[in-house]
Amino acid sequence: MMKKVDGDSSLNKGSPxxxxxxxxxxxxxxxxxxxxxxxxxRQQIVNLAAEARLMKSPPPGVRPYVxxxxxxxxxxxxxxxxxxxxxxxxxxxxxxxxxxxxxxxDVKGLTISHVKSHLQMxxxxxxxxxxxxNI
Length: 135
Known about the structure:
By secondary structure, the chain is mostly helical.
């Protein structure tokens, strides 16, 4: 940390900062640093979000989040094994459709949305494995 040097002003005459130092605290002096009155960009976003929650409407251009009434599904190892078995019976991840996988699995409480997202993740994982295997 640099501090303003008091004393001989002839030391500062040739430096470009000498005109800035005269009569003011140095910007490097920690005691002169203070919080700005202007909020940071992050704080502005936080403030907008807080205002939006109070108004019960999102900021302009932002779609409101609508939480599903269905509880989140946990894909257990047994449930995933059943899923993989259904996908293999249908000819692999590229030929399997969410509707057919759902019918073959026949699990109570499982919806097509659950299967769609899991199949999408499963396909991307398989394709990534193929790419890494070919390198």
